[in-house]
Structures are given as C-alpha cells and as structure tokens.
Write the structure tokens for this entry.
Amino acid sequence: MDRICFAVLEKICSLAAVGRFVVFSEEELFDAFPDGEKRNEAVLHGALKTMKEYGFIDLKYSSGNLYCIAPLKKYEPAPTPEKEELIIEEKTPKPQHISGAIFFPAFLGGALGSLIVSLIFAFV
C-alpha cells in the first residue's frame, strides 16, 4: 500500500469505529491526501480498492461523491525511525565473550570426533 492508502485509512479510522459503517464524501477523503498528490477520483477509487483487497476496509456502496465505508482493522501508524532504532537496540542482547573454558573443550571434542571417523574410514 502506498502513502495515499495509509493517509486515507488513517482518516477513515479516525472518524469510524472498527466494523461501523460511516458515510464519507470525496472531499473528506481528498483532505487526507498527502501534500503534492493528485486529488483525482480515479486515484481515490484505486486506493479504496487496494484497501478493500487487503482487508482493511469494507465498502458498502459508492454513489456519486459519497462512500459508505467501515474499517475492518485498527490502524496503527508505523513508528518513526528514531523510535524503531531504539526498540531494536533495547531488544538485541549485547554479545558476550566466549571463555576458554567453553571453547577449548568444544574444539577438542570436534577434533577427536573427526579423528575417530577418519580412523573408521581408514580401516574399512
């Protein structure tokens, strides 16, 4: 979904409860368009069709410049990149140093296992 879909969906969810149909005019939905985007009826129809296909809205009818729309999912805006980076930093554990008490026995076990397999294949 693109910027127009998210902007229109945010407008719909701000004015209607999930599962409740509300009548919107084209002008109300055009007001939600991001700055610099074309306010075209075809673009609005495309955005509504996309949101309906993805299951975000249910479109009961569209008549003239009126649309009866119900949001089907609660819209939550995406976090800002600064907040997202902080969340990632908090959740990722800091790498810990491998101590020699763990590394050397594991290395020797792998080497011993390889030696045993090599000897078995040498005698067979």
Notes: The chain is about 55% helix and 15% strand.
